[in-house]
Task: structure prediction
Amino acid sequence: MAELVYLNGAFVPRSEAAISIDDRGFVFADAIYEVVKCYRGRPYRLDDHLARLARGAEVVRLDLDGGVGELASAVERLLRENHLLEVDASLFLQVSRGPGPRNHPFPTSARPTTLVIASPVPPLDPVTYSQGVRAITVPDRRWGMCDVKTVGLLLNVLAKQAALDAGVAEAIFVRDGVVVEGASANFFAVRDDRLITHPEGPQILPGITRQAALENAAAECIPVELRGLKVEELATIDEAFLTGTGTEVLPIVEIDGQPVGSGTRGPVTEVLQRRHFLLTRGAGIEAAGTGSGR
Ligand code: PDD
Result:
């Protein structure tokens, strides 16, 4: 059975879905998006993702034609019709300002292009999630609206590729000597059993998984400092981890060739991972790699 996607109000086979070469998403990165993970047919915090999309649309003055309700119904139908109710899946939602002549001002007659893709994702590797990954720091030269989830991700793409070229999993942006976030995930440090993460604002994406981790920390009575960690402080932290929709809660055990704390996953990270896996799968960390849930 061909995978269906939702494009501009219609459900079409993925191979037949086509977007104009004049689409402003393609020409100007004039588009916003969301990635949502679904655990056995259940989208994780879909309302939060749709609210962030709606907020982004308002900031960039993009008319969400049918509203987010249209997207939520599309998600439901795609999960069903693409047989994604018993496996883990990833949703990609994108809304662009639509096709128009290549002029900077908004086109007068364009209608937004709305796309929803739902595809299966492989289970996580439990070894990676217990052993952790390595990361590098990179200068943050991104724009001043990193809180808006636009598809203009070239500097994130270059940072991620630099990480892979260096043989590590993630690049961590540093701006004015302060650690902000990863190329595709939020960054947390732990020192003296306290969680430290950059506050919300224009320098980071207000991650949905970050928010969940903060709620989990509160439930575990783990104190939180919302502040930017100075890059020199990396040498003094006990633990670090990333949070993100696809990344979930991933320990970082080495940054720029230096071990983080003991160089292994730390206890605070493990507690927050466990809660995350329980919330998303109703099962422990060991189930992350099996794709099982409930
Ligand atoms: N990335 N920071 C950046 C720069 C991101 O791109 C992402 C997510 C996050 C984490 O946000 P959330 O927890 O809401 O997924 C933080 C998505 C998944 C992506 O572009 O693939």
